[in-house]
Amino acid sequence: MPETVLPKTVIQRSRDRARQRLGWIDTAQSFPFAGNFDLTEHAHGVLMVNNEDIVDAGHGFDTHQHQDVEIVTWVVSGSLVHQDSRGNSGIVHPGLAQRMSAGRGILHSERNDHRRADGSPVADPVHVIQMWIPPDESGIEPSYQELPIDAELDAGALVVVASGLPRHRNDAAVGLHNRYAGLHAARLQPGRTVTIPDAPFGHLFVARGTVDVEGSGPLEHGDALRLTGSGGQRVSAVTDAEILIWEMHASFDRRPSRR
Questions:
Q1: What is the DSSP string of 49-74?
Q2: For the CA atoms of the chain, what is the radius of gyration?
Q3: Residues 196-253: pLDDT tens digits?
Q4: Three-class secondary structure of residue 197 per DSSP
Q5: What DSSP designation does 5 have?
Q6: Rounded Cα gap, residues 140 and 130, in angstroms
Q7: Which residue, 149, 142, 131, is CA-closest to 93?
Q8: 62: number of Cβ within 10 Å
Q9: Which CATH superfamily groups domain 8-248?
Q10: For the chain, how many helices (H) and strands (E)?
């Protein structure tokens, strides 16, 4: 249910994230993720995973299963090949809004393939942010959705990437099966400004560049701002920057996590 909370702002610096380099992947985790962690226990609002991965060419996540989770994948640079057991396939690239609802169970893979569709080789890594929130109901039908939003992002405004909030019904690029959460993104040139939405819980992540947040100061690539009972702060780009902002009107009820 929606909650009333006391105002609080916490900065998480990039250096304070859990980081691992495991052969073909360099990963940094804003919340405890690997191992036997209860993802809901460490969540902020309803955001329980915010992983930033650098995946080498020719590698990736082989087929694996998820259940009862909404997964939003945001590519900063490079491209990622998605395939799942519902027959969905495609290339996730910068400027593409993408959401997979695992529902009662889905198998999928995500890889930085070593060759493009035209047969030319891929040498560059893919830089990707993956975020997880819960659905409102367990056991729903698995589904997949994507939509290019490059033009909207290039305008320099805050764009509704994925949302289940009723007020975003006609604005979101892709939907979420969670009526209390929405993800916004912005590509900002130096000096351009956007405003953090008001919400009981918010999470701002700097995917690229440096920004200055009113009342909090500079945030650089990999830094995050966790907002509780706050919003309305102006975010100004210091360099070319890309930011992701979760607007959340609920938090977890401490039910066991499902993955």
A1: EEEEEEE-TTEEEEEEEE-S-EEEEE
A2: 17
A3: 999 999 999 999 999 999 999 999 999 999 999 988 999 999 999 999 999 999 998 5
A4: coil
A5: -
A6: 21
A7: 149
A8: 9
A9: Jelly Rolls (2.60.120.10)
A10: 1, 22
